[in-house]
Amino acid sequence: MEIRFIGSGDAFGTGGRFQTCIRLQTQGYTALVDCGATSLTAMKSQHLDPGEVDAVVISHLHGDHFGGLPFLVLDGQFTRRTKPLTVFGPVGTRQRLHLAMETLYPGSATVQRRFTLEVTELDGGGGTQTAGPLEVASWEVDHASGAPALAVHTALDGTRFAYSGDTAWTPVLLDAAAGSDVFACEAYTWDKAVRYHLDYATVRTHADELDTGRLVLTHMGPSMLERLDELDHIPASDGFVIRT
């Protein structure tokens, strides 16, 4: 499987990076983990076809993780997509997507499409949902976004990829990371505590507790990007690829 960090940045484009969007691709199936507002542009700049996406897993409903979803749906409509699209997200995703589409492009949420759009809301309690070969488990984390925020653990083609989402440290991250081949973890600041977010000092303190084959840092702000040469763990960048 190929894991590509299409977007690895924070909400504000620090360092010119695109917002969070991670592509899981195996022969015959493609999933995105998060779809920030810049994701469609990021995909096309990297010569990736949005029409290949079978599923999108949303960690939480902030714009830098969710805001590209209306554009992905509309792109499919205007390119005459016929492949079904499944969206996994926290409780409230279905309503928020409808509101976002109607706010950005009135009438777009109810138009007749050539493809089916199915929204599956995740329980945040460690339960698993499936769509074709993709399995998604979720745990509620500590991040205020007007709806539950989640860490997720996916299984696809024998590879397990997990993601912290945005969150302060919480022990459920150990559950989300357990048995993963790759765990992508937010590290927003170097050591400054920011409410509802992780700093690298905290991540480094708990790194040995995380049961993962590879810990990758993402969603990095200015203080992290200034000190990339001091990191003990792999930093993601836009276009960074891991093959398993």
From the 3D coordinates, which CATH architecture would you assign?
A: 4-Layer Sandwich
Predict the CATH topology: Metallo-beta-lactamase, Chain A
Distance from N terminus to C terminus (CA atoms, Å) equals 5 Å
Number of helices: 7
Number of strands: 14
The structure class reads alpha/beta
Mean pLDDT across every amino acid position: 98
Beta percentage is: 25-35%
Structural domains: how many: 1
Radius of gyration: 17 Å
Strand order of the largest sheet: 6-5-4-3-2-1-14
Please mark out the parts with pLDDT under 50 across 5 or more consecutive residues, or reply none.
Answer: none
- Return the CATH class: Alpha Beta
How do you describe this structure in short?
The chain has 244 residues and is of the alpha/beta class. Helix content is 20%, strand content 30%.
Commentary on this structure:
With about 240 residues, this protein is of the alpha/beta class. The protein has a single domain, classed as 4-Layer Sandwich (Metallo-beta-lactamase, Chain A), CATH 3.60.15.10. The protein has helices spanning about 40-45, 65, 70-80, 95-105, 170-175, 200-205, 220-225, and strands at about 1-5, 20-25, 30-35, 55, 85-90, 115-120, 125-130, 135-140, 150-155, 160-165, 180-185, 215-220, 235, 240-244. Strands 6-5-4-3-2-1-14 form a seven-stranded mixed sheet. Strands 7-8-9-10-11-12-13 form a seven-stranded mixed sheet. The radius of gyration is 17 Å and the shape is globular. It starts with a strand and ends with a strand. About 50% of the residues are buried. The model has no long low-confidence stretch (mean pLDDT about 100).
